[in-house]
Amino acid sequence: MPLTSQKTRSGRRKLSELAKHLAVPADITSTMWPSVLKTCTEKLGAEFDDWQDGAGRVMLAKREDGSLAAMIDGVGMSLPRQVGKTHLVGYVAFALCVNIPGLLVIWTAHHSATSTETFLSMQGMAKRVKVAPHIKQVFTGSGDEEVRFHNGSRILFGAREHGFGRGIPGVDVLIFDEAQILSDKAMSNMLATMNTSRFGLQLYIGTPPKPEDRSETFKRMRREALAGTLTDGAWIEFGADADAKDDDRAQWRKMNPSYPKRTPAQSLQRLKRKLTPADWRREGMGIWDDDAEGTRRWSADFWSSVNTEWAPEGGVRSFAVAFSLDGSRLSLAGAVKHEDGVHVELIDAFQGVQERGVDPLADWLAERWRDVSRIAILGTAGAALKAALRDRKVPEQVLHVMSTQDYFAANTMTEDGIKAKAISHPVGAEGDVLNASVAVSDTKRRGMNGQWGWEPTVPDGDETPVEAFCAAYWAARTSKRVPGRKQVLI
């Protein structure tokens, strides 16, 4: 059910017409919002603006099996200040607690001041005439802020900077306030609390991050949403145009859908005067900094610490081919294991693999396999390449399709090799493809115990060159096969 194409009630604007960016999960068939909305309006006395009504539909969208459509990746919302997000999220949390007995909600902000401010707002909500009959008790002790309902549901409040939320079992709803300051480590620690929940609603709410913010999770959600790959999550973003003037009232309407009906101009002017110009554009206008440079795991200094102008004259060679997740891109790297370590080079990288096929690469590798210790193949799309190499009589003992654990091991092994100066790679000319890949590839947590993979951090970034680089180093280090012929340079 494509929520963005549904007709709305007379006179109401759809979320897709109001939001700057909107991404909804795939395969939506229904939404819990009507029942939650009914509780909010009839039992709790709430009213919502058009954008809040649309956002409620998206965050509670369901798939055919009845599970939340965004249960895996969650719902991200990049919203300026004073747009009404606490009103929306607060009433949604209260209504869910009323509708689902025994529900456990964790509402966490990065800073204590924000958490305290939010709790005071929810404390006031709990005292309202229509809400109070559902509330059993409000706990106000420092570190024990809680709203408890008669039916056993609870909402707990706390700050991540003090470790709040970790180790609490059976959490059903996680609300990450100030999500622009949320590292992958902090996010992983909190998500573990939801392992036993069948509900599993995650809300990531924040403003565009500052350069110094630890915002891996929030940035990644936005990148995936804009790239159209956030199929198991949702993204709702309000903001002015990137080139908007600070005082353009037409842009104020775009950035803040509650202006001027619920948020008067005076409120925004007051906020503007309290913030620096840069913070006003981020927090007041919802404008993201240019993310064109992306982020990287390996700093420029770390990466260049193993630069070399010279390749070894002899050694045992290995090749590695890394395919992108969709199979449309691949990179080929070669490694030479010599007395002093391993020298690795990117040989080629290209797109359009699905159209061109793997035959040219298979022909190239088949001509060289006798001089190679191992050919490592990374990515599910590599099955076609392995079949093509078999057809060309490349022996099975030369080929190795890397498992997920091999992939994790290759990344950490390569990073350790760079630290130990056991790897070398060419300096690279201006525009070097491998250097460009390293410059925009950052960590994506994919496994337990700190295991990690690579992902591009800009829309056109390519992670396969650095993945092939790591895979080639891993192949050279782990293969015990020694070709019979004299080795030559890559």
From TrEMBL:
Pfam families: Terminase_6N. Keywords: Membrane, Transmembrane, Transmembrane helix. The chain crosses the membrane at residues 88-109. InterPro entries: P-loop_NTPase (IPR027417). This is Terminase. It comes from Microbacterium gilvum.
